[in-house]
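Supplementary material to the annual report.
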Amino acid sequence: MKLTKEQQAILDGSQGETMAKVLKTLIMYGECFGAERLVPITSEFGHTVISFGIGVMSPVYDLYDKILGDGFISKQKFTADPLPLDKNIPTNPLQDLVFKFMYKWQDRYEEQMKKLGITNDKAFTCTNYLPEVGNTPKKGDILSWAESSAVVFANSVLGARCNRNSGIIEMMGSIAGLVPEFGFLTDEGRKADYIVEIRTSEKPEAQLLGSAIGMHVLDKVPYVKGLDKWIGTELNDDAIGYLKDFGAATASNGSVGLYHIENLTPEAVELGESIIRKDAQVYVIDDAELQRVKDSYPVIWKDPNAKPKLCFMGCPHMTLKQLKDNTEKVSQALRKNGHSKVVIPTVWTASPDVIEEFKKTTDYWKMVNCGIILSYICPLMYMNNPLCKIQPVITSSNKLRTYTTARYYTEAEIIEKITGGEM
Amino acid sequence: MKKEFKGRVICAGSCTAPALVSHGGFNTLASFQMAIMFGDKKVKCGDQNNPDLYKKPMIGTALCLPETIGSTTGGMILYTVCAAGKAPACMLFSKPIDSLAASGAILADVWTDSSMPVIDELGEDFIQYVQDGMTITVSEDGTVTVED
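Predicted assembly:
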């Protein structure tokens, strides 16, 4: 890798051993993937995937203590993934005991984040890019983020440039103010390897379509044709909510870091089919293919016929529009099914800033009256508790399904279940 | 009988250890999570979706795999097991390493006293040939010798 004189001096120790190691880490990381130089981060804010103080991960917090002790912090303020705990979520005393043991470094780590440069105490969400939160990069911005669903959204919908970084590495980039230039930071790395043709008879469920594409293309870049027929050609609130869920499923069911939607996402609009590689493969998705993918999900509950004890919606965190729309759908379904409140304990998750905005609307009280709990947590971190994951939990999130024992249903199926419709 | 494979050095080092082979993608978080959470000294694999490795001890083995899969926390998990002295003796990838595994391996190499050689691009022949229990010797230059 070619370094500038200043970078070489830092690597040689001009700013001390710790900063030299930060730079060495980024250089070795870049060299693995053919990067020829380090480039400056241009986004205003960073985003870290690490938001939890898990007891067993003390080496991570020890490392951050060392960095802070040597006087280094992030060169940019940053947001972080959702917090793991919220007393409003239904738990029993034993589960609480395990949570206390699991997240024993939570206070320690939150204090570290304050010192490193977190933007504020409401900065904990996986949807940091939503306008209410305000960490929304511009097209072409170079980022040092980690959180697969946020990275794929930033790359695809906002046209920013970020690789699929791991936790810690993203903070190293933010501390140095530099990232190695490879992969999605280059024009070549952003070209589509796959053409995905949508031939469904109705609007495909975002979380299911993303899952199908992710499982098929893995880490490649898909160019999706025919979806604009269902979600339009404008990046409005509905399209943003759809693409958020779609992208999270591509990133977790596969490892997609960038997708292009014909006539909708910025690079597809600007460059059209010229961003498709000449040897691109074709993947056709019709109703039967979506059904095949849905039927392939294993049910890993001890009793597959168990009555669900909890439902999570909002992984990734819901948008304001999704909160309002889902409130309306649940209200209508409750009326239809002859109930006043949900019949399965249900938790919706959204960012603290979106929750604050939602609380200003009448829909918020409508949602409360439906018996729904609104929280800022990460459902995944709740499900990591061994005593929580043995419960029959249902979800409309394909990411939560992938990483936990939660069972996936489409949004319409979930709403029927929680409102006492046909089970 | 000995067979040699040559790969690309991600983290240099040498070691000799018994092979432990995953033919499917290695989910770093799912594999290590329970072992590190509950202090399992043998670091048995906790990934129920990996029939090759599930419940097998991983510490001190030559972990042979095509690639890693799963959450972006994978890198920090790998760093943690290395820092805690619970890592495999080496990690040997048949495919090019992915960004998450590379992050974990490099973080461990730069920031800890752990010396876990990591070699990638060993090829499909390697992962087809190597079997659990075979003796693996890794050299500084990325040569991997597999012995029956």
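The radius of gyration of chain A is 22 Å.
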